[in-house]
Amino acid sequence: MNESATKQQPTVEPPQAATKGGLGTVYGRQLVKSFGHRTVLQDVDLDIKSGEICCLIGPSGSGKSTLLRCINGLEKVDSGILRVNGEDLGYEETETQYRPLSKKQVAAQRTQIGMVFQHFNLFPNMTALHNVMSGLVLVKRVKKQAAAEHARSLLQQVGLDGHENHYPSAMSGGQQQRVAIARALAMDPSVMLFDEPTSALDPELVGEVLGVMQQLAEKGMTMLVATHEMGFAREVADSLMFMCAGRTVEYGDAREVLAHPKEERTQQFLEKVL
Amino acid sequence: MNESATKQQPTVEPPQAATKGGLGTVYGRQLVKSFGHRTVLQDVDLDIKSGEICCLIGPSGSGKSTLLRCINGLEKVDSGILRVNGEDLGYEETETQYRPLSKKQVAAQRTQIGMVFQHFNLFPNMTALHNVMSGLVLVKRVKKQAAAEHARSLLQQVGLDGHENHYPSAMSGGQQQRVAIARALAMDPSVMLFDEPTSALDPELVGEVLGVMQQLAEKGMTMLVATHEMGFAREVADSLMFMCAGRTVEYGDAREVLAHPKEERTQQFLEKVL
Amino acid sequence: MDATEKPRVRRRSAVEYVMWALCVLVFLAIAYSLVTNPRYEWDVVAEYFTAETVIDGVLLTIMLTFVTMFLGTVLGIVIAVLRSSPVMPVRVLAGAYISFFRGTPVLVQLIFWFNVAALYPDINIGIPFTDIGSEVDVNALMTPIVAATVGLTLNQAAYMAEIVRGGFNSVPKGQIESADALGMSEWTKLRKVIIPQSMPTVIPATGNQLIGQFKETSLVSVLGVADLLQSVQLIYSRTYETIPLLIVAALWYLVMTLALGYPQSLIEKHYSKGTRAGTPVPLEPALAGAEEGR
Amino acid sequence: MDATEKPRVRRRSAVEYVMWALCVLVFLAIAYSLVTNPRYEWDVVAEYFTAETVIDGVLLTIMLTFVTMFLGTVLGIVIAVLRSSPVMPVRVLAGAYISFFRGTPVLVQLIFWFNVAALYPDINIGIPFTDIGSEVDVNALMTPIVAATVGLTLNQAAYMAEIVRGGFNSVPKGQIESADALGMSEWTKLRKVIIPQSMPTVIPATGNQLIGQFKETSLVSVLGVADLLQSVQLIYSRTYETIPLLIVAALWYLVMTLALGYPQSLIEKHYSKGTRAGTPVPLEPALAGAEEGR
Amino acid sequence: DGSTTPEQESDITKGVEEDPAAVKLLPAKTKNDGEITVAMDLSYPPTSFLSEEDKSPIGYNVDIARLLGAKLGLEVEIKDVSFDTIIPGIQGGRYDFTTTNMTPTPERRKVLELVTYWNSGSSLVTPVDNPEGLTFDEPESLCGHTVAVMKGTTQAEQYLPSLQDDCKKAGEAPIDAVVLPNVQEALTQLSSGRMEAVFYDTPSLAWAAKQQPDQFEMQDQQYQKETGTDVVTFGLAKNSPLTKAMHAAMQSLIDSDKYKEALGRWGLESGAIPKSEILN
Ligand SMILES: Nc1ncnc2c1ncn2[C@@H]1O[C@H](COP(=O)(O)OP(=O)(O)OP(=O)(O)O)[C@@H](O)[C@H]1O
Ligand SMILES: Nc1ncnc2c1ncn2[C@@H]1O[C@H](COP(=O)(O)OP(=O)(O)OP(=O)(O)O)[C@@H](O)[C@H]1O
Ligand SMILES: [Mg+2]
Ligand SMILES: [Mg+2]
C-alpha cells in the first residue's frame, strides 16, 4: 500500500482557464494545507464550471475529505487562491493581503455551499424530518409548514417515506446517509460537496441517489464528489481529479482519465478496481 | 426504492443440516428481533461452517447490521436458536427455557467473536496503536511489549505503518476503518463480523483488505460480512445471504446466487449493480 | 419442546433477591429507629413543621433559589460562551470572573455587597467627565433582598459557567461542523445544536447546583433575611429544641429536593430523545445487562 | 503581487481592541480602588494574613477538603455505577442515598453525626442475636474531625455521584458497544473506556465541587473545629475588624482556588488528547472563528 | 417552649419622657429624620430574640434600645442581622448603633465607640444533677473537664485563661475548652454528653435552663470576676455624632425607674450599674 508522498509530481494543467467565475463555480490555485508538520494538500488547482460534476478519487488519506472541508471553510487553507461561487472563500482580497470576512458574511457564503459528511453528522436530537428542515427553518427562515412539505418530498426522493419521525439512532447506516443527502439538498446550494455519499448505500440505492444527483446537475447544481466507487465516477462525472498524497496527479475529462490514464500512478490505481 | 416488507417469502432451506457445531461455526434458527413494534429480523436461519466466508447483502435497512449485532450479543434476539462457536449465545438452554449467562461468561464468549463496526467506533482517547492493543492488553492480559509488537505488525498489514501514534480524529475515514479492522483481528477470534468493512476504502485498499481476509479464512477464521460491494462478495464469499426487510430471500453458494439468482427480488437487486 | 420455542427468561439472580432483602431491611431499620427513638421528639417536629415563620422561610428560600438560579444560569451561559471566545481579552475577563467569584466564599461576597456602603459610601451614577448624574444612597439601594439576590446570582453564574463549559465540551465536533456547513449563525447554532445536545451532561450537574442553592440561600441570614434554616434557628435559639427543629428544616429541604427530582427526570428524558430508546446510560451490554445482577 | 502569494492575515477587529482596553480598564479600576480606599485596612490584612491561627485554619481546610473530596469521589463513582445498575433494588438504594444526602443541609448532617450520641447513646457493635460484641462509646469514636470527615464525605459522594452520572451520559453508545465487543469486563470497561471519556465533562463540574468543598468545610465550625473561616471569625469577634479579616479569608480561598486551576487545566488537557488538536470547544468554525472578534 | 409573659411583651416605653438635655446633643439631621436604627442578632434570649406570638423583637437589649429612643424622642428601627454584618454595617452608616452584649476590650475600643449600660454575669450550666460536681464555688473542680465557651466572648478571651492558671497552680490537668460558634450548639453537645459544662452569660444560660429543665441545670454561683471587667456596652461608629446624646440618654435612663424595670422583667436585676461611661 503506497501512501508515501510521491515527490516529483508532473505539473498538471487544469482543463480550463482561470476566471473569477460566477454562481456555481469553484476555482482554486496552489492550495496548500497542513496540520502541524503534516502537509495534507500541496499546490492543488481546481477549476469547476457551473453545473459540472467533478469526482475526486484517490487512495485513502490522499486528502479528498480535507479538500472538500477547505472548500466549505471548515478548514482554512494556508495559502493559495480559493474562490467558490465567484467569491474568495472566507476572505476578501486587498492589494497586499487576504483579510478574513466577518462571521455573518462567512455564514452567508456557506448557505450557497452544501456538504454531505463522510460520517453523516446528523443531529441526533432531531427526527429525520427535522434534520432535513433544520437548514430551511433555522437559516433560511422558511415557514415551518412549507419547510416540512419540502423536506417530506426530499425524503421521498431518497426513498425514506415513512421514516420521517425516526431519530437517527434508530436508522440504518444507509438510511442515515440518505437523510444527510436530503438535508444538504434542502438548502438548494449552488455548489454541493459530497464526501463518499454512497459509501453506506446498496447498489440499488446508489443508482437512485445517482439519478437524483444527475437531475440536480441538469438543473445547474455544481457538485464535487469524493468517492471510491469507480462505477459511480464513470456514470456521472464530467471531470475527474485523481489525488495522491495531497497532490493532484491527473485532472481532466472523467471518461478520458478513466479510460486512458496518462500517469502511471493512476493506471496502477485503476487496475486494482474490482 | 422498495423497502416495504415483501410478505410472502418462499421458505428458504439453509444449505446445510443443523448441528451444534464447534469453534468457528454460527448456527441460527428462526431468529426474530424487533424494536418496539418494528420487526427488524423475521425467521432468519443461518448455518456457517468453520472457516467459511459468508456475505450478507441486501438493500439499506434490510437488517444486516442488526443480524451482526445479534450474533455478537449487542442486541438480543427475541426468539429462535442462536449458537456461535457451538455455544448458545448469552444463554444456556435448560429443559424448558433459555436462562441468561452471567456477565463474565458472556464476556468470555465475546472474546471469540470479533466485530468491525459500520461507524468504526475507535476509542478517541487512544492512538491507533493503543486502539489495536486495547483488546490484547485489557482483555487477554498479554504483556504490553508483546501486544505492541503484534499490533504494529497488524497495522502494517493494513497499510498503516507510520500512523501508530496518531489519534483517530487525525485520521481519514479509510485509515480509521483499517485501524478498526486491525483492532478486531488482534483478538484472533474464531468468528469475525464485518459491518461494511470496506465502505470507506479505495479500490486499492479494498483489494488489500480482501487479501488479508482471505489469508485469515485460510487459517480457519469464520467471517460474516455485511457489504454493498458485489465485487467483493463475488471474489471472496463462500456463501451469500440476500436479505430484504428482515427476511432471508436467498441463501446459498455465493457464486451460484450471484450468477443465477432464483428469486425475483434478488435478480432485481443484482441488475442495478453498476 | 422445540428449542426455538423455549422462552428466553430474565433471570433474577440470588444477588437480586439479596439486594431486595437488604433494601427492605435498611428502610425498616431506619423507620423503626425513627419511630421508636423518643429523642427525635416527633411531636415537636409536627408542631413546627407548618408553623407560619417556617412556611415564610420556605417560601423565601424557594423564591430566592429560583430567582438567583435563573439569573445565574442565564449569566453563566453568557460567561461560558465568552470563556471560549476567540478574542483573548474576552476570554481573560471571563476567566477572571469565574476564578474570582468561585474563589471567594459566598458569605464574604454577601457581606461585601450588603456593606458596599462601608467601602464606597456614595457612588455616582452618571456620565463620566460630565456633571450629569446623581449620587445614590447605596444603603437604600442595597436592601437585604437586593444584596442577597445580587450576591447569590453573581456567585451562581460563575459555577454555572463551568458546568455549561463542561456540557459544551461534550458536544461532538462533527455536530458543530454540520451546523456550520448549513450556514447557521452563532446564535442559532448555540440555541439549536450546542445547548440541546449538551443538556444530558449539564442537567445532573445543574440539579446539584440547584439543590446546593436551596441550602446556600441560608447564608442570607447574615443579612437578617429569615430563610428556612434561619427561621428554625430563630425558634430553637428561643426554645433549645435544636434537634427536632433541625429535623423540620431537613424535612423541608428534602421535600423541596424531591419535588425537583420529577421535573429533572422529565427534562432529562426530553433531551435524551434520539439516543437509542431514550433509556439511561447503557452501562451494561444489552444482552448480559438486562438479565443479571452484579 | 500574485494573488496566490498574498498572506492570509488574522484580522484584529475593532471589537478586539475595545475589549483589550476594557480589560485593562477594569483591572486598573479595581486595583486603584483597592489601593486607595482606606477602609480595606490593608495593614490589618497583612498583619493577620500569616497569623498562626489563620495558617492552622488554612491547613485544616486543605486537609479536610482533600480527604473528603477524595473519599467522596471514590464513593460517588461507586454510587453512580450502582445508580445505573440493572438490578432495581440497587438502583433504588443508590437513588435514595443521593436524594437523602443531597436533600438535607450539610449543617444538619454534621450536627447529626456529631451528636449521634444524643440520639443513640450506646451503639452495640457485634453479631446480632449473640452475646458477642461490645458497647461503643459513640462520643469517643466520633471526634470532631471524624464527624466532619464522615459528614462531608457522605454528602460529597451524593453530589459526585450525580456529576459522574452526567459524565457517563456523555459517552457515546458506540464506545460502550466497542468495548463490549472486545469482551472487556465491566470493570475494565469502566476504567479504560467510560471514565477516561467522561472526564472532559466531569472535570469542570468536579472543579466546582472541589472549590465548593473548600468553603463547605467552614460548616465544621459548629463542631468546634477551627477551619480557615472560623479562625478569622474568632479573630474578628474579638477585635471587631470584620472586613479586613474577611478579606484575609477571601484571599486565602482565592489562593487555594487559583492554585487548583493549573492542575485542573493540565488534567483537562490530558483527557482531551485525541479530540482534534486538543483545544477547547471549537464553538467557532475553524475559518471565521479564529479570525474575528464577536 | 420559649413562652414569654404578656407583661414581658408589653411596651416598656409607655410613660417615658424625652430628656431635653440629651435631645439637645443630637445632631440636626437625626432630629429631622426622627429615627435611628439599631442592629442586633435576635437569637439570644433573653436579651434579644423574637416573641413567639407576633415575631416582634423582644428582650432586655431591645427594651434598652427602645428606651434610649424614647429618651431622645426618636423612633427606633430594629434590624435583625448576624454578628458578622453588625460592625461593617455600623461602619458603613447602615445602622446607628448596636445593643449586643459587647464587652469592652482594648482592641474593640479601637473600632467602635462603646458606652456602658449594664453588667452581665458569667455562669455555668451542667446536665441535671451536675454529675461531675462542677461549680465556681471551687474553680478547681473544672480542671480536666470539657467545657464549652462561645467564640469571641469574655469567658473565652479573659476568664478561661485565668481559670487555666488556677488549674496550673493547683497542679491539676487544664480545662479542655472547646470554642463553639453559638450557645445553641454548645447546649446540643451538652445534651449529647460531649460537653460537661457550658460557660457563658448568666441570663442566656438561665433562660436555657428554664426552657429545658429536665436536661440542663444552672449552677447558682457566678464566676467571681474582678470588678469592672464584665461591664456590657452598646456600640456606635467611631466619632459618631450620636455618641454624646446616647450617653446622656443612657445616664438619664439609669437615673429613672425604667432602667430597673427593664432589667427586672427579664430577671437581670443584679446587673444594674450606677453610672454610664463612654469608653474610648
Ligand atoms: N486534524 C488532522 N490533524 C492531522 N492530520 C490530519 C487531520 N485530518 C486529516 N489528517 C491527515 O490528512 C490526510 C488526509 O486526510 P483526508 O481525510 O483528507 O483523506 P481522504 O482522502 O478523505 O481519505 P479517505 O478516503 O480514507 O477518507 C490523512 O493522512 C490524515 O491522517
Ligand atoms: N434501535 C433501533 N430502534 C428502532 N429501529 C431500528 C433500530 N436499529 C435499527 N432499526 C431499524 O431496523 C432496520 C434494519 O436496520 P439495520 O441497521 O440492520 O439495516 P442494514 O441492513 O444494516 O442497512 P444499511 O445497509 O443501510 O446499513 C432499519 O429499518 C432501521 O430503521
Ligand atoms: Mg475522507
Ligand atoms: Mg448497516
UniProtKB/TrEMBL annotation, chains A, B:
Membrane topology, record value: Peripheral membrane protein
Q: Which PROSITE patterns match?
A: ABC_TRANSPORTER_1, ABC_TRANSPORTER_2
Q: What does the record give as EC number? A: 7.4.2.1
Q: Which UniProt keywords apply?
A: ATP-binding, Cell membrane, Membrane, Nucleotide-binding, Transport
Identify the SUPFAM superfamilies for this entry. Answer: P-loop containing nucleoside triphosphate hydrolases (SSF52540)
Recorded GO molecular functions are: ATP binding; ATP hydrolysis activity; ATPase-coupled polar amino acid-transporter activity
Where would I find the ABC transporter domain in this sequence? 26-270
Q: Where is the composition biased (Polar residues)?
A: 1-11
Q: Which reaction does it catalyse?
A: a polar amino acid(out) + ATP + H2O = a polar amino acid(in) + ADP + phosphate + H(+)
| Localization per record | Cell membrane
Q: Which CDD domains match?
A: ABC_HisP_GlnQ (cd03262)
> Which intervals of the chain are annotated as region Disordered?
1-21
Query: Does this entry carry the keyword Membrane?
Result: yes
Which InterPro entries does this chain map to? Answer: AAA+_ATPase, ABC_ATPase_HisP-typ, ABC_transporter-like_ATP-bd, ABC_transporter-like_CS, MetN_ABC_transporter-like, P-loop_NTPase
Would the keyword Nucleotide-binding be found if you checked this record's keyword annotation?
yes
Q: Name one GO cellular component term.
A: plasma membrane
- Protein's name in the database: ABC-type polar-amino-acid transporter
Provide the species name. Answer: Prauserella sediminis
From TrEMBL, chains C, D:
Q: Does the keyword Transmembrane helix apply?
A: yes
The protein's UniProt keywords, in alphabetical order, are: Amino-acid transport, Cell membrane, Membrane, Transmembrane, Transmembrane helix, Transport
Q: Where is the ABC transmembrane type-1 domain?
A: 58-264
Pfam families recorded:
BPD_transp_1 (PF00528)
UniProt protein name: Polar amino acid transport system permease protein
Q: Cellular location of this protein?
A: Cell membrane
Report how it sits in the membrane: Multi-pass membrane protein
Source species: Prauserella sediminis
Q: Which residues cross the membrane?
A: 17-35, 55-82, 94-114, 243-263
Concerning its family, UniProt says: Belongs to the binding-protein-dependent transport system permease family.
Give a GO biological-process term. amino acid transport
> Which SUPFAM superfamilies does its entry note?
MetI-like (SSF161098)
Matching InterPro entries: AA_ABC_transptr_permease_3TM, ArtM/GltK/GlnP/TcyL/YhdX-like, MetI-like, MetI-like_sf
What's in the GO CC field? Answer: ATP-binding cassette (ABC) transporter complex
Q: What is its main location?
A: membrane
